[in-house]
Amino acid sequence: MALRSDPLEVIFDRFLTSRAIFKNRDVLRHDFVPSRLPHREEELSRVAEILAPVLTGTRGSNVLVYGKTGTGKTASVKYVLARLAEKCGSVGSSFKGIYVNCRLAGTEYRVLSKICSMHAVQLPFTGLATAELSNRLIESMKSHGSYSIVVLDEVDALVKGFGDRLLYELTRINELLGAASLTLMGISNDLSFKEYLDPRVLSSLSEEEVVFKPYTAPELRDILAERAKEGFAEGVVSPGAIDLCAALGAAEHGDARRALDLLRVAGEIAERAERKTVDEECVRIAWKKIEEDRLYQVVKSLPLHSRLVLLGTIQTTSKSGKVTSGECYTSYNALCQHAGIEPLTHRRVSTLVNELEEAGILICKIMSQGRYGRTKRISLSAPLSVIEKALSTDSLLQNLI
Ligand code: ADP
Ligand code: MG
């Protein structure tokens, strides 16, 4: 018999009663594609118009979709592809819709082999040269006469890491396909990525362009309200909580993903605290938690010398509140000596301090010292406990803390 004070029993019971908060958690996940996408009617129509020719077996234009993260690009494109496949089914035509997230795929080769495997190209276990993969893809598409729509999501990650060679290959494939055809759609979170493209690749990829604008706070409110209705039990989420998530998401470049994360985490917080409702306070706690998680990840992935500079700052700050750039350097230098690492110059460290400020970890203020000129005062702009926890994940720094 389990005792009431048994910790596992408590967890299980809490989970069972948690149904009171969530109705369907999956609805609040990133990759969930909702059955309606409010405030994206225009973008959905544009994408549908561009891809519609596949219904009659003609090639549509290549298209470049861009907009900031969380503006609904991925969800919208997946939605249109699903609807198009449905329509094709009902009129007896067919196409291959291939979706690849380039950032997750990681390399040109993996992107291309994913496209190949969707075209039933046999790939030997040992791998092939990229050029050979392209040839086999062309042969297979020709022999099957296939119409394909290839969506390269987060294509900016691919181009920044590997250049535009694969895009060049894919845009060129069409000229060699005869009766078959390939429509290419690139989705980018970053507009400046166009600068990385050869003009020929750019003009071929961006025969059409669709821009996704950031959401406004009222638009985010509608999106969240609809998701909340499906994801949470009735009446659990207060209107104030939705408004706050929408406002915070709007301030964060109109990002629906951030707003949804916030709502989901707020729900988890309410659940763990065994509250009956998700209110503004839960959202505020959720915001703090998400910010801290983000800070933790940023600090953890800083390069070694930046971490040493940060540790040096912390160790001097704990005595005097603020540190001068001179004190910071001395402390950094001592840490380097201690760890047996060659220290960087004053100037390089100054650059690292500026980068830490840009990352929202430090605050720098230039103070006048009267006739002694000016000096930089450095302080922490983020919770010390989180920074220390992130720094101590490194065994080298752990010894220095
Ligand atoms: P992007 O690809 O532009 O970064 P996503 O399509 O991944 O953005 O959208 C982020 C999250 O917000 C996803 O969970 C998505 O379902 C949701 N979302 C975005 N726009 C809408 C919308 N108009 N209606 C409902 N949910 C949306
Ligand atoms: Mg996306």
Q: Would you mind describing this structure in some detail?
A:
This protein is an alpha/beta fold. It has three domains: 41-212, P-loop containing nucleotide triphosphate hydrolases (Rossmann fold); 215-298, Helicase, Ruva Protein, domain 3; 302-398, Winged helix-like DNA-binding domain superfamily/Winged helix DNA-binding domain (Arc Repressor Mutant, subunit A). 55% of the residues lie in helices and 12% in strands. The protein contains 18 helices and eight strands. It has helices at 7-17, 41-51, 73-91, 102-105, 108-118, 130-144, 155-162, 165-173, 199-205, 217-231, 239-251, 256-272, 280-300, 304-320, 325-339, 346-358, 384-391, 395-400, and strands at residues 63-67, 96-101, 147-153, 181-188, 208-212, 323-324, 362-368, 374-380. The strands form two sheets. A five-stranded parallel sheet has the order 2-3-4-1-5, sandwiched between helices. A three-stranded antiparallel sheet has the order 6-8-7. β7 (362-368) and β8 form a beta hairpin. α14 crosses α15 (325-339). The radius of gyration is 26 Å and the shape is globular. The chain starts with 6 loop residues before the first helix and ends with a helix. The model has no long low-confidence stretch (mean pLDDT 90). Magnesium ion is lined by residues 73-74, 153. Residues 30, 32, 34, 37-40, 67, 69-75, 223, 256-257, 260 line the site of adenosine-5'-diphosphate (ADP).
